[in-house]
Amino acid sequence: METSNINLKLVNPSQYRFEHLVTQMKWRLQEGRGEAVYQIGVEDNGLLVGLAEEEMRASLKTLHRMAEKVGADITVLREREVDYDSDMPRKITEVLVRKVPDNQQFLDLRVAVLGNVDSGKSTLLGVLTQGELDNGRGRARLNLFRHLHEIQSGRTSSISFEILGFNSKGEVHGLSGTPWGQTLEDGLEEVVNYSDSRTAEEICESSSKMITFIDLAGHHKYLHTTIFGLTSYCPDCALLLVSANTGIVDLCAKTTVERTVRQLERVLKQPGCHKVPMLVTSEDDAVTAAQQFAQSPNVTPIFTLSSVSGESLDLLKVFLNILPPLTNSKEQEELMQQLTEFQVDEIYTVPEVGTVVGGTLSSGICREGDQLVVGPTDDGCFLELRVCSIQRNRSACRVLRAGQAATLALGDFDRALLRKGMVMVSPEMNPTICSVFEAEIVLLFHATTFRRGFQVTVHVGNVRQTAVVEKIHAKDKLRTGEKAVVRFRFLKHPEYLKVGAKLLFREGVTKGIGHVTDVQAITAGEAQASMG
User: Fold this and answer.
1) Residues 8-48: pLDDT tens digits?
2) Are strands 160-166 and 237-241 parallel, antiparallel or unpaired?
3) What is the pLDDT of residues 352-407, one digit of tens each?
4) Cα–Cα distance between 500 and 445 in angstroms, integer?
5) What are the φ/ψ torsions at residue 16 (nearest 5 degrees)?
6) Which long-range contacts (CB under 8 A, 24 or more apart) does 474-479 make?
7) Helices 283-295/313-322 angle, 10° precision
């Protein structure tokens, strides 16, 4: 998100100056992918001069005219008094400018929700997306469960997606005592969720910004599903839930909460994490946390929430509303210039629609009617198919851009030929596949020594398959904490991998991470021979 300092020239600007400011706003909104924060009363050099009340009102009026000109809305985030050499009180105002996207190209952030079993992940998401507090016994999470055994046990075993929308309203209340735009307190009512019996389609239509929560299982039994969700669905950030204590939510004393927060802060500051914890206790904290989180990967906001009383839930909503996209428009534009590549994460059969795949567009642009190839199959081939229709967050969409998640309808294409881990790509890409690849890894934990012949489950993006360690370069074995370049061979079928892709492997308590450094490309014929 672009943050700009605006000085006193917003007060009654000339027509030439006004057009120049509008052009600047267009550019800043483009760079921020539809969002920008303006700091009114701060000079370009960062000097906090502030504005008197009449000057601030005139500046906000001008900013509103600018936003109208570019099809955007404004929301006042916060106001602060400054100590400046003046007899009159002076203020600085931060304003969020958000453009209303066209053709359903709303800003979309994906948040992975993690936590130990029974920490309250599904309950929190139920409260946020359904607009109703929990009763202390898990009522809020019932609408999120996908299987009978989840309802019976109260534990998530699969990956589910929930959406929370924020609209772009910044209504003008007039010049008589009320500020231009909405205050942060008013803006909280602009959350768009399933309350008032809204459908997913209505939420998408009413929202300028969408938060897609990826609800991941907390039980160790479903660890493979959780890891797949983290590596495959490309979340922008993660929300980690830590139970205030091991008992029932809201039967926790304030001292216990404070002790848990102190423990969490100590863990985050340890050498292995190198994080900067930031406890959010006010709206001002939430605004600052969102801005600093986007600027530094080390900043880690901490919220003390209750899904029963609703404590601090509004602060989390403020944070999510202001949280900017973590990639800028230039990076997305570069990805869109590349050939089409879509990761296949889910496969469905929908009555009267046919075969449907869900996943993320890694690069390029995908449109209705596009001819793509999908693979690799077990024998290393890629098959031709046609994209019949596209949906984003359950609403029809004609164009899919790099970085966006969606479901694609493939008509009568045989579902039996598809599997998770495949890719759909442009035929011009001439995709390469491999059974053998090398990766530079760090062994996070292993009970004994990690040697040649050891079998692990490898996760690379949406790929998940058992592989055997064929060689450890320059070493005979690895111990916990050691690094090496390792050669792996897939045991079942070839996969589509790219150099530089992040990798995670596990087997029992053994865990390691790294990145792909080399792939030994093979043809379909060689794939059949190697797997035979």
Assistant:
1) 458 888 899 999 999 999 998 888 888 889 989 887 777 78
2) unpaired
3) 999 999 999 999 999 999 999 999 998 899 999 999 999 987 778 889 999 888 99
4) 23
5) -65, -45
6) 476/451, 476/452, 477/449, 477/450, 477/451, 478/443, 478/446, 478/449, 478/450, 478/451, 479/443, 479/446, 479/449, 479/450
7) 40
